[in-house]
Design brief:
The chain has 423 residues and is an alpha+beta fold. It folds into three domains: 3-148, Butyryl-Coa Dehydrogenase, subunit A, domain 1 (Orthogonal Bundle); 160-263, Butyryl-CoA Dehydrogenase, subunit A, domain 2; 271-415, Butyryl-CoA Dehydrogenase, subunit A, domain 3, CATH 1.20.140.10. The chain has helices at 3-8, 25-52, 57-65, 84-95, 99-120, 126-146, 263-270, 280-297, 313-338, 346-374, 385-393, 403-415, and strands at 150-151, 170-174, 177-187, 195-202, 214-220, 226-229, 243-253, 257-259. Strands 1, 2, 3, 4, 5, 6, 7 and 8 form an eight-stranded mixed β-sheet that branches. Strand 2 and strand 3 form a beta hairpin. The protein is globular. The structure holds flavin-adenine dinucleotide (FAD). Flavin-adenine dinucleotide (FAD) binds next to strand 3 and helix 12.
Length: 423
């Protein structure tokens, strides 16, 4: 997107003021690009994807054109080479305009971020790293040249997506690749992604499956044996189209591996902030709910009579509560994403859980307050608040860091030192 494009529309103010938060030039530019495309295109389409529970295909075409599909593809491979923090703030800006687009875009971007900058921080024998770099370049080329979309169906309905058990979707080595069998639930982008980046266990006869052997493999959506089943009619995040995927003896070439065996396990253990990437969508929704409320109480929502409601002390109190919760979430989240990296301290991991929890819970609470503060008309389907409210409800349900799991871990880590028991 050129500077002239950016000048064409007036953009909302950044969620994170570049001067105040001392953002890099790249972070500022990516944020501006996201706001521009979000305001001019995504905002007006969002209610249709929500009503139809249909996938935002047009938005993906626009993001490809704007270079955003390759945001975390390393520069040497032709992408934007955005850091973890730069991506997180850009994703929050997209979330302001269409939650379903931001959340599904996250699944796509992680296929690049985790295989790119994050994996570069991890240990790998030189020969394995060389093969990994060759393979990931193939995935990146598909994204940059063809606009290919990747998803991340990990959930199976058991304990695996929470990191508490090995995945039951199995990969068995055969000549030239793997045979994949299993089922993934809540598979966002099902029927719309070109590649499903699944986590599965390497099945070896006579051996017990182990989380250490987890494989991360891109299954071409059109491969024989892949089917999308079941309905999709949820409360919120309806445009994510998170149906069920079935894999029946699907042959996948070994070149489709997104990470070598064992590297996903290493990433999850050593780079835990990787799981925070589900949160920016919900920070963006919180900002959108706050912005709408201010506009509504000032009588400035386009298409509505210019009735002001800002003079009532109860309205001012409601907005003040929302403002506090938004600032709390922003400050904690910004600190956590700034210190993300390999081998964080115990305190840093606890801060990441606290930030993730705060964003997910505050987002829904801010939307709830927005509806109460704006009043009856604000829950009409013709206005976006009720969609923000429904979408924001989904954040704290998402594994592996649901609100309950974050609380559980923070509580335990606060009270027990590593290795300590009550025996
Ligand atoms: C809109 C949307 C889109 C999604 N998209 C994707 C996607 O693209 N890919 C994907 O892989 N998944 C996706 N998910 C699924 C999501 O990450 C979770 O897997 C899913 O919400 C879990 O639902 P469940 O009822 O099976 O959870 P369960 O595993 O049955 O857990 C129920 C609750 O129990 C608690 N719990 C579970 N395990 C533990 C534990 N070990 N310790 C303490 N408490 C625990 C948690 O609070 C959890 O919320 C999506 C979910 C939503 C809502």
């Amino acid at each position: 997107m050129t500077e002239a494009d950016l000048d064409l529309i007036a953009t909302d103010r950044p969620i994170f003021d570049p001067m105040a938060f001392r953002l890099t030039e790249q972070e500022e530019e990516l944020g501006a690009r996201a706001r521009c495309i979000g305001m001019s295109k995504f905002a007006q389409r969002a209610s249709r994807f929500d009503a139809e529970a249909s996938f935002p295909t047009e938005n993906y075409r626009d993001m490809h054109e704007a270079g955003l599909l390759g945001i975390c593809v390393p520069r040497e491979d032709g992408g934007e080479g955005a850091s973890f923090r730069a991506y997180m703030m850009t994703a929050a800006e997209i979330g302001r305009y269409c939650g379903a687009t931001a959340l599904t875009w996250n699944m796509h971007v992680c296929s690049c971020l985790w295989t790119g900058a994050l994996t570069d921080d991890l240990d790998m024998p030189a020969i394995e790293r060389e093969a990994h770099r060759r393979r990931r370049s193939m995935h990146y080329r598909r994204i940059l040249e063809d606009g290919a979309i990747y998803s991340q169906p990990f959930s199976e309905g058991g304990a695996a997506a929470a990191g508490a058990a090995p995945f039951s979707t199995s990969a068995t080595r055969v000549d030239g690749g793997f045979l994949i069998s299993g089922k993934k639930i809540f598979a966002s982008l099902s029927g719309h992604a070109d590649y499903y980046g699944i986590l599965c266990g390497e099945f070896r006869p006579g051996e017990r499956p182990s989380r250490r052997d987890t494989l991360y493999i891109a299954v071409p959506a059109r491969a024989e044996g892949v089917t999308v089943v079941g309905p999709w009619d949820p409360l919120g995040m309806r445009g994510t189209v998170s149906r069920t995927l079935i894999f029946e003896d699907v042959f996948v070439s070994e070149e489709e591996a997104l990470m070598p065996r064992g590297v996903y396990y290493q990433a999850a253990s050593r780079w835990p902030h990787m799981f925070m990437t589900l949160s920016p969508t919900y920070l963006g929704i919180a900002q959108a709910a706050y912005d709408f409320t201010v506009q509504y109480l000032r009588g400035e929502v386009p298409g509505l009579p210019p009735v002001k409601r800002r003079m009532y002390p109860t309205k001012q109190l409601g907005v003040a509560q929302m403002h506090l919760m938004l600032e709390q979430a922003k400050a904690l989240w910004f600190q956590a994403i700034t210190e993300a990296g390999p081998d964080p301290s115990r305190e840093q991991i606890m801060r990441a859980w606290a930030a993730h929890y705060t964003v997910m819970e505050n987002s829904n609470e801010i939307c709830q307050l927005a509806i109460r503060t704006c009043g009856g008309q604000s829950m009409l389907k013709s206005l976006p608040l009720e969609r923000f409210y429904r979408d924001s409800r989904c954040g704290s349900l998402m594994l592996p860091w649901t609100a309950e799991i974050c609380l559980d871990r923070i509580g335990r880590e606060s009270l027990y030192l590593p290795g300590e028991t009550d025996d």
